[in-house]
Write a structure and sequence with these properties.
It is elongated and about 60 Å long. Helix 1 packs antiparallel against helix 2 and helix 2 (about 35-65) packs parallel to helix 4. The protein has one domain (about 10-120). Strands 1-2 form a two-stranded parallel sheet. By secondary structure, the chain is mainly alpha-helical. About 55% of the residues lie in helices and about 10% in strands.
């Protein structure tokens, strides 16, 4: 079987733009205000994009599995793997804001609907 890759650049780009604009809007806040209408709207649009992207990605993965008659999928997942990430400020921001667990949940849900068995396993980070 050939490897299956999904392009994550659109998601990273949206997060980067979100962080940049949010920082700009926060710098203009007066007093000890924590948010504004612009920040709320920005967060809303970013969250909608992420949900849509994860939905489409999980659909793409499951369709690939069904097309190639794959009956079992093994997904590697470690609990609390983002909390211990210390790969620099910018890389931490890129990595920790991507909701990997939501993607795994959606793939699992859609695989179950398609009759594909899903096995989640704790993956070793350092081998």
């Amino acid at each position: 079987m050939k490897p299956f890759l999904v392009n994550g650049k659109p998601l990273k780009s949206v997060n980067q733009l979100y962080n940049k604009r949010k920082a700009k809007y926060q710098s203009h806040l007066k007093g000890n205000r924590k948010t504004s209408r612009k920040i709320k709207a920005l967060s809303y649009h970013r969250n909608r994009f992420v949900e849509n992207y994860l939905h489409n990605t999980s659909k793409l993965v499951v369709n690939y599995l069904v097309t190639n008659n794959i009956g079992t999928v093994v997904i590697g997942k470690n609990d609390n793997w983002k909390q211990g990430a210390n790969i620099g400020k910018i890389n931490n921001q890129k990595f920790t804001q991507i909701p990997h667990s939501k993607l795994i949940e959606q793939i699992t849900y859609k695989c179950q609907l398609a009759g594909i068995k899903v096995i989640e396993t704790a993956r070793l980070l350092y081998q």
